[in-house]
Amino acid sequence: MRRFAVAEPDSLEAAAGILAREGAEARLLAGGIDLLGELKDRLISPRTLVNLKAVPGLEGIRSAADGTLRVGALTTLTALADHDRVRGEYPAIAQAALSVGSPEIRNVGTVGGNLCQRPRCWYYRSALHRCLKKGGDVCFTTTGESRYHAILGGGPSFIVHPSDLAPALVACDARVAIAGPKGARELPLERFYVLPSERLDHETVLVAGEIVTEVIVPPSASSAAGRRSSFLKFKERDSFDFALVSVAVSLKMAGRSCAEARLVLGGVAPVPWRAAEAEKEIVGGAVDAAAAGRAAAAALKDAAPLADNGYKVPLAKALIRRALLDLAGAPPDLTPS
Ligand SMILES: Cc1cc2nc3c(=O)[nH]c(=O)nc-3n(C[C@H](O)[C@H](O)[C@H](O)COP(=O)(O)OP(=O)(O)OC[C@H]3O[C@@H](n4cnc5c(N)ncnc54)[C@H](O)[C@@H]3O)c2cc1C
What is the Å distance from ligand 1's center to 106 Cα? Predict the structure, then answer.
């Protein structure tokens, strides 16, 4: 492994300055769970690691005067999952945070690092494969092993987005605050991620020197505003594992009728996948087995599985139906997908 220096900037400006100046020779370090894996696997070999933990004020969760929930980028996943307001008002976020890895990973991994972690695709993670994302000219999933890859939004690369937290936050309409050499900006988390067809070298809109500082969740997404939310994750192993498919749902009910819905899939696409067509199927009526079935069909209508991952289609449909019926308090639908 190449020798590297660790910079300890004492402000966001200083951290952003080093990152902008050094470009690919510098990498931001938060909890290090993903970054150190990339270093050890020789996927990256920066000259400098910029330790974000040296910057004060980026850790913690607070309720702002406008009712928003503001989560600092260095907040650990454990702190997020344990937070009273998150558990009480934003169950999907607490469930997603709690579903990440193992207690050790959640104790060290941060919200910013979880949202910015790189893909787990085995070709991307293998130093032996110079895939499209690493400047090569082929996505090996098209001829190789594709069982964990994208069925929606893929091409020319078929990675899937790895964070469990991201779909839950998108379902709760969260925004992300970013600091950088050109100042601060804020955007919906949904627009933070980009498809491989738009950008191959990275999965987000971040440019050199930019740092995620905070995630902001609106009060209108909380149960106090009449919302219900839930996150379901299906994984291959009972112990810690990434999602094969996950579903995050947030519903606003008006009596038995659904007034608003946000439905986001994880594990199926290169970005947290907002299923807008599915949302239309459930808004304006009762969330019963028929509506949940229509929503599931609409969400997967454009699925284009690769050779080994067709199983994700019925799996995603079943999870969508289950999540919707659970949230609406309707009896479970036992029809096979
Ligand atoms: C065995 C194992 C199992 C796992 N299981 C799951 C799982 O089930 N679900 C899941 O969601 N994740 C899972 N993960 C991933 C893990 O949750 C993330 O690696 C971790 O949350 C990253 O957080 P970190 O603070 O350690 O980030 P780091 O490793 O420090 O950083 C990760 C990446 O994000 C960048 N970065 C960090 N912070 C910021 C910031 N504020 N702004 C901009 N860029 C930033 C870094 O430069 C780096 O590229 C697993 C990881 C392992 C090793």
Answer: 10
pLDDT band at 337 (very low <50, low <70, confident <90, very high): low
Q: What is the pLDDT of residue 30?
A: 98
Q: Which domains occur in the chain, in start order?
A: 1-55 (3.30.43.10), 230-328 (3.30.390.50)
Instruction: Supply φ then ψ for residue 252, to 5 degrees.
Output: -115, 120
Place of tokens 């009060």: 219
Q: Judging by DSSP bridges, how do beta strands 26-29 and 48-51 pair with one another?
A: parallel
Report the pLDDT value the prediction gives residue 214, as an integer from 0 to 100: 98
DSSP bridge pairs for 216: 70, 175
pLDDT of residue 2: 86
Q: What is the CA radius of gyration of the chain?
A: 20
Q: Stretch 155-172: mean pLDDT, rounded?
A: 98
C-alpha of 3 from chain center:
31
pTM equals 0.97
Give me ligand 1 centre to Cα 75, in Å: 12
Question: pLDDT tens digit string along 38-72?
Answer: 999 999 999 999 999 999 999 999 999 999 999 99
User: For atom 14 of ligand 1, which residue has the closest CA?
Assistant: 101
Ligand 1, pocket residues at CB < 6 Å = 27-35, 37, 52, 73, 100-101, 105, 108-110, 112-114, 116-118, 162-165, 211-212, 240-242
Residue whose Cα lies nearest atom 9 of ligand 1: it is 100
Please tell me the distance between residue 283's alpha carbon and the centre of ligand 1 in angstroms: 35
